[in-house]
Design goal:
The structure holds two protein chains of two kinds.
Chain A lengths: L5 E8 L10 E8 L6 H11 L19 E4 L2 E4 L12 E5 L6 E3 L2 E2 L1 H12 L21 H10 L7 H4 L2 H5 L5 H12 L8 H8 L13 H5 L6 H18 L1
Parallel strand pairs in A: 1-5
Antiparallel strand pairs in A: 1-2, 3-4, 3-5, 6-7
Chain B lengths: L1 E10 L3 H12 L4 E4 L16 E2 L13 H11 L6 H20 L10 E7 L2 E7 L20 E2 L5 H15 L4 E2 L2 E8 L4 E8 L5 E11 L20 H7 L6 E2 L4 E8 L9 H4 L3 E3 L7 H4 L9 H16 L9 E4 L5 H7 L1 H11 L8 E10 L2 E3 L12 E3 L4 E2 L11 H23 L6 H20 L6 H15 L3 E2 L1 H18 L13 H25 L8 E2 L7 H4 L1 E6 L9 E6 L23 H17 L5 H8 L15 H6 L6
Parallel strand pairs in B: 1-2, 1-10, 2-7, 10-17, 16-18, 19-20
Antiparallel strand pairs in B: 3-6, 4-5, 8-9, 9-10, 11-16, 11-21, 12-15, 13-14, 14-15, 21-22
Helix pairs in contact in B: 1-4, 1-11, 2-3, 3-11, 5-15, 9-10, 13-14, 13-15, 14-15, 17-18
Classes of the chains: A alpha+beta, B alpha/beta.
Chain lengths: 245, 663
C-alpha cells in the first residue's frame, strides 16, 4: 500500500468587513485520507491550521446546496467532491461569482434566492376554493406528479447562476434557477397562472429571450436538472403567447 | 444594542418553525423567524422517505385510520409517549398532507390497476382501485400496520420544505438568516425573546416577542457519527436548559438509524427497506428473519439497529478500515425503481461510495439519527415552566415519540406539530401583551457580551475543536445503541471533566465578527451541558425502553420507570443537570402498556395496567355495540384540538362504502 499523498489547497481569502484586508490566495497542505472530500479537508484545515477560514456546509451530503464553490475552475458542490478526483493533488478553491461575498468561500445565496422568489412569485398559486383539508384531495395525474418532482429537485445551490455567462454580464437576468422554477409552476395543473401571466415575468431579455444558450447551467448543475429542455420549453411557450395575442 | 420587536418570534426555519410562523401570520400577527442558514437549507430537506398520514388511499393502506396510526405510534414509543399528543397528531396528519398538496407538494400519486412490488424479497402484484387513481400514494415503513408513508420519490423533506418556505415567502414572513440565538430573555416565569448574534457581523441583537418558539431541530451532533446536518448541535435545547427553569424531557432517548453509509454516516432512507430492500451479512446471508421472523427488516428502527449490532458482535460484520459494517441490498428492486423512487440514495452511493446501488450492495451500519428528547412542552407546545416559551419539531419533547420514533413520524411531526402548536402560539399572542423590561434585556445581553469578551481577550489554553471531538467520541463510545452502568458512569465523569476544561477555551482567531472559532467556542460548552443531560439521564434510567437499551437492565420496567426524565440546570456552575421524573398516568391512557411485538415480552407490568384495562372494557360495554369508533375513542380518552382542526378526515373507504355520504 502506498503512503498517503500530500495535497495542496490554494484558497481565496478575503474578509470584506475588514477595511485593511485585501483579497489573496493562500496555500495550505494536508495529508489525504481515504474517501476524503473537500468538506472533510476544509474542516480539517480550519480545526488544525486556520480557525478563521470561512466556508458553508450544512448537510454535507449533496442535499442542501449550501457548499457550492468554484473548484479548479468549475462551480460545484464541495461536500461531494472527492480529493481523489484530482490526480496532481492541487486544488484551487474560489467563492461562487454572482453572489454577495460574506468572506473567503462563503457567499450569500440565501438573499439572492429569496429576492428571486419574491420577484418571480415562485410559489404555487392554486384556485383558492380548493382547500378543504378535511376532504379527499383532488386527484392528480401520477405522471404529472412525477414530472413536477423531477423539476423540483433544484437545491438552490447557485451553481447555474455562477456558470452562466449571461447572468455574469447582466445582473437582472433570472438565470436557470428562475426559469426552472417558473417551468415547474407553469406545468403544475394546480397553478392557475397561464403562459400569458408568466410572459410578463420572463418573456423578455431578463428571461428566456436573454439566454445565450451557452448551457453552463446544464453542464454544471449538480442535480442534473434538464435546464436546456426547460428553457427551450419556456421559449416555445412564450413565443406562442406572442403569436396568439 | 438593536432591539427588534414582534408578536411571534420563531427560532429555526425548518419545517416546524416555518409552519408555526405561517400559523401566526395567518392570524395577522407580526412574525419573525431566525435561522443559522437560509431556510431551504434546513435539515428538514434531508428527510427522504416520507411522512405518515392515514389517508388509506392505496390498497395496502385500506382500513387505515387515526386509530391504527395512534396505536402504531404508542407501541412504537414503547408506551413512553404522551397519548393525548399522539391522538392530536394522528388526527391532524391527513389534514397536513392535503394542505401541503395545496401549497405545492407534488406527492407521488396512485396509478390504478396492477403494479409489481417487492414484499419479503418476493415480487408481488397488487391492484389499486380505479377510484384511487391520482390520489396520494403511500409506501411501507417499519413499525406500521398499514402502508401509510406519503412521499415524493425519496426527496419528501426537500419537497415539503420548499413548498412550506415558498408559502412563507408568499406571506412575506421575514427570515433573518445567519443569526444564532444564544440565550433566552426571561424572568423565571415568562419568556420574552432571545439574545442573538449575527454570524456575519458579530452584532448582538435582542429579539423581543410575545411568544418565542424554539424549532431548532435535534442534538445529533453531540455524537461523532450522525446522519444529522452539521447544524443540529442542540443549541435550542441548551437555550432552554440554560434558563435554569425550563425542563428538557427524555434526553436519553436517542435513536440510531439502521442504514447510514460507512464511513461518513449519510443516511439511506428507510424507504429502501420499505420498498423491499434486504439486510445481509458478510456471507450474504439475510439475517433479520433469524431475529425477527415476523417483521424482519421492517421491525422498528431501534430493534433493527440492535439486531444489526448483535449480529456484528457475533463476527458477522464485513471488515473495513472503519470497523465492521453490514450490507443493504436494494438490487432486487430493479434499476427503474432505484432510479425513480430511490434517486437520492443512488446519488449518494455514486458520489460518496463510487458504487451503483442497482447492482452493488451498500455498506451500512447503525448511526445516530434522531433526538426523541428535547424541550419539554405540554400538549399545546408550551413549556410548563416558562410561559410564552414554545417548542416544536425535533427540538421539542411534545411528546409523541416517547422512547422510539417511527419512521415517517418525524417529518409528519414537523408539519402536523407546527400546524397544531402554531394555533396555540397564535392564541397565546392574542391573549397576551408584549412585556418589555429593558433591565432584563440588558442583563441577558451583558452576560452574553461578557462571555464573548472573555473568549476573545482571555488567556485560555484549551482548543475548542479538541474538546468538541472528545465529547463526540465519549457519546459515541459510551452512550450508544447498547448502554450499561460502568460505561455511562465513565461518560458522565469524562463529560464533566470536559465541561471544566471548556471554561478555559482559548481562541487563535480574535475577530469579533465572522469568526468560526468563536462560533464553536460559544456552542461547545452549551453542547456539553446538553450531552450531560443525555448521559446522566441514561445512567439513571435502569430499564430498557425503546431506543434506550441497558444491557444491565434488559427489561422494560413499567412498575418503576413509566415516567419521563426531566432535566434542569439551576446552578450554572454545576457540572451536571438536576434530574426529576414526570409520571405517566396509566389510568388516563387509551392504550395501557402492553406487548410491543418484538422478541420476548419481558416488561415488568405497572399495577394500574390491569385496572385500566378493566375500566376501558367497562366504558366500552356501557357504550354498547352501536357506538362508532369516534364515540368509543372519545369515551376512553377525550383529547383537545383547536376547533378548526377538529373535523373528521374523509377517506376513500367512506365514499366507497357509503356512496354520497360524507363523514
Amino acid at each position: 500500500m502506498t503512503s498517503p499523498r500530500t495535497i495542496s489547497f490554494n484558497i481565496f481569502r478575503y474578509d470584506p468587513q475588514d477595511p485593511s484586508d485585501k483579497p489573496k490566495m493562500v496555500t495550505y497542505e494536508i495529508t489525504e485520507a481515504p474517501g476524503m472530500t473537500v468538506f472533510i479537508a476544509l474542516n480539517m484545515l480550519r480545526e488544525q491550521q486556520d480557525p478563521s477560514l470561512q466556508f458553508d456546509f450544512v448537510c454535507r451530503a449533496g442535499i442542501c446546496g449550501s457548499c457550492a464553490m468554484v473548484i479548479n475552475g468549475k462551480p460545484t458542490l464541495a461536500c461531494r467532491t472527492l480529493t481523489a478526483n484530482f490526480p496532481d493533488g492541487k486544488i484551487t478553491l474560489m467563492p461562487l461569482p454572482g453572489f454577495e461575498l460574506i468572506g473567503d468561500l462563503s457567499v450569500d445565496t440565501g438573499k439572492f434566492m429569496r429576492e428571486l422568489a419574491e420577484r418571480l412569485q415562485l410559489w404555487l398559486q392554486p384556485d383558492a376554493n380548493d382547500i378543504d383539508i378535511h376532504r379527499l384531495e383532488t386527484p392528480m395525474d401520477p405522471a404529472e406528479a412525477a414530472k413536477l418532482y423531477e423539476l423540483e429537485r433544484c437545491v438552490e445551490c447557485g451553481v447555474c447562476v455562477s456558470a452562466c455567462a449571461t447572468k455574469q454580464m447582466k445582473d437582472s437576468f433570472v438565470g436557470a434557477v428562475g426559469m426552472m422554477k417558473i417551468a415547474r409552476f407553469e406545468m403544475d395543473s394546480r397553478d392557475i397562472r397561464t403562459a400569458e401571466d408568466f410572459y410578463h415575468v420572463i418573456g423578455n431579455q431578463d428571461g428566456v429571450f436573454g439566454c445565450m444558450t451557452l448551457l453552463g447551467c446544464q453542464d454544471a448543475c449538480p442535480k442534473d436538472l434538464p435546464h436546456m429542455q426547460q428553457i427551450a420549453y419556456l421559449r416555445r411557450k412564450m413565443a406562442q403567447t406572442i403569436v396568439s395575442c | 444594542m438593536k432591539i427588534i420587536y414582534t408578536d411571534s418570534l420563531v427560532v429555526g426555519a425548518g419545517l416546524a418553525g416555518l409552519r408555526v410562523a405561517i400559523a401566526s401570520k395567518e392570524r395577522g400577527l407580526d412574525t419573525v423567524v431566525l435561522s443559522l442558514i437560509p431556510a431551504k437549507r434546513s435539515h428538514s430537506a434531508a428527510a427522504q422517505g416520507g411522512m405518515q398520514a392515514s389517508l388509506g388511499n392505496t390498497v395496502k393502506g385500506m382500513g387505515d385510520d387515526e386509530d391504527v396510526h395512534f396505536q402504531d405510534t404508542v407501541k412504537g414509543s414503547d408506551w413512553g409517549c404522551d397519548q393525548d399528543v399522539a391522538r392530536m397528531f394522528a388526527h391532524c396528519a391527513p389534514k397536513a398532507v392535503r394542505e401541503l398538496a395545496n401549497w405545492g407538494v407534488p406527492w407521488s400519486r396512485i396509478t390504478a390497476g396492477d403494479r409489481e412490488v417487492v414484499v419479503n424479497a418476493e415480487k408481488v402484484t397488487i391492484t389499486e382501485a380505479e377510484e384511487a387513481h391520482g390520489l396520494i400514494n403511500a409506501r411501507d415503513f417499519g413499525g406500521t400496520k398499514k402502508w401509510r408513508t406519503c412521499y415524493t420519490a425519496d426527496g419528501t423533506g426537500h419537497s415539503l420544505l420548499y413548498a412550506v418556505d415558498n408559502k412563507a415567502i408568499e406571506m412575506d414572513i421575514p427570515v433573518h438568516e445567519r443569526i444564532e440565538a444564544l440565550s433566552l430573555i426571561h424572568d423565571g416565569k415568562r419568556c420574552h425573546g432571545v439574545i442573538a448574534r449575527c454570524l456575519v457581523t458579530g452584532e448582538l441583537r435582542a429579539y423581543i416577542g410575545k411568544s418565542t418558539t424554539i424549532a431548532t431541530g435535534g442534538y445529533g451532533r453531540i455524537y461523532e457519527v450522525s446522519t444529522n446536518a452539521i447544524i443540529c448541535e442542540g443549541i435550542g435545547q441548551a437555550l432552554a436548559l440554560d434558563t435554569g427553569v425550563a425542563t428538557l424531557g427524555n434526553m436519553e432517548a436517542v435513536q440510531f438509524h439502521p442504514t447510514a453509509i460507512v464511513p461518513v454516516g449519510i443516511l439511506t432512507t428507510e424507504g429502501c427497506r420499505g420498498d423491499g430492500g434486504l439486510l445481509r451479512d458478510k456471507d450474504g446471508h439475510r439475517f433479520m428473519p433469524d431475529y425477527e421472523p415476523e417483521k424482519k427488516e421492517l421491525a422498528s428502527r431501534d430493534v433493527v439497529s440492535r439486531r444489526m449490532t448483535e449480529h456484528m458482535r457475533k463476527g458477522k460484520g464485513v471488515d473495513s478500515p472503519y470497523g465492521p459494517h453490514l450490507w443493504l441490498d436494494i438490487t432486487l428492486l430493479g434499476r427503474k425503481h432505484v432510479e425513480t423512487n430511490l434517486r437520492e440514495v443512488k446519488e449518494i452511493c455514486e458520489n460518496f461510495l463510487g458504487i451503483d446501488p442497482a447492482k452493488d450492495w451498500i455498506p451500512v451500519r447503525p448511526t445516530q439519527h434522531y433526538s426523541m428528547g428535547g424541550i419539554r412542552t405540554d400538549a399545546t407546545g408550551e413549556s410548563p415552566q416558562l410561559a410564552g416559551l414554545f417548542s416544536v419539531g425535533e427540538a421539542a419533547c411534545w411528546d409523541m415519540h416517547g422512547f422510539n420514533r417511527l419512521g415517517g413520524n418525524s417529518l409528519a411531526e414537523t408539519v402536523v406539530g407546527g400546524m397544531i402548536i402554531g394555533k396555540y402560539v397564535a392564541d397565546f399572542c392574542e391573549k397576551n401583551t408584549l412585556e418589555i423590561n429593558t433591565d432584563l434585556i440588558e442583563a441577558s445581553s451583558s452576560k452574553l457580551s461578557e462571555e464573548i469578551d472573555r473568549l476573545l481577550v482571555g488567556e485560555g489554553t484549551e482548543n475548542v475543536f479538541d474538546i468538541k471531538l472528545a465529547m463526540q467520541r465519549i457519546m459515541m463510545s459510551y452512550v450508544g445503541i447498547f448502554r450499561n452502568g460502568p460505561e455511562l458512569e465513565k461518560a458522565v465523569s469524562e463529560l464533566k471533566a470536559l465541561l471544566v476544561r471548556s471554561k478555559n477555551i482559548g481562541l487563535k482567531c480574535k475577530k469579533r465578527h465572522a469568526n468560526p472559532e468563536l462560533v464553536e467556542a460559544l456552542r461547545v460548552p452549551r453542547m456539553l451541558r446538553v450531552a450531560l443531560t443525555v448521559a446522566c439521564g441514561a445512567n439513571a434510567r435502569t430499564e430498557s425502553r425503546g431506543a434506550h437499551a441497558r444491557e444491565d437492565y434488559p427489561q422494560r420496567n413499567d412498575k418503576e420507570w413509566l415516567n419521563r426524565t426531566l432535566s434542569t440546570w439551576p446552578d450554572e456552575n454545576a457540572l451536571e443537570p438536576q434530574l426529576s421524573y414526570e409520571q405517566l398516568d396509566v389510568m388516563k391512557m387509551e392504550l395501557p402498556p402492553g406487548y410491543r411485538g418484538y422478541g420476548n415480552d419481558n416488561a415488568i407490568a405497572h399495577p394500574d395496567t390491569a385496572v385500566r384495562e378493566v375500566e376501558i372494557e367497562k366504558i366500552l360495554t356501557e357504550l354498547g355495540d352501536d357506538a362508532n369508533r369516534f364515540e368509543k375513542q372519545a369515551a376512553v380518552m377525550p383529547f383537545e384540538l383547536p376547533e378548526t382542526l377538529r373535523p373528521r378526515n374523509e377517506r376513500l373507504s367512506d365514499t366507497l362504502t357509503v356512496p354520497g355520504e360524507k363523514t
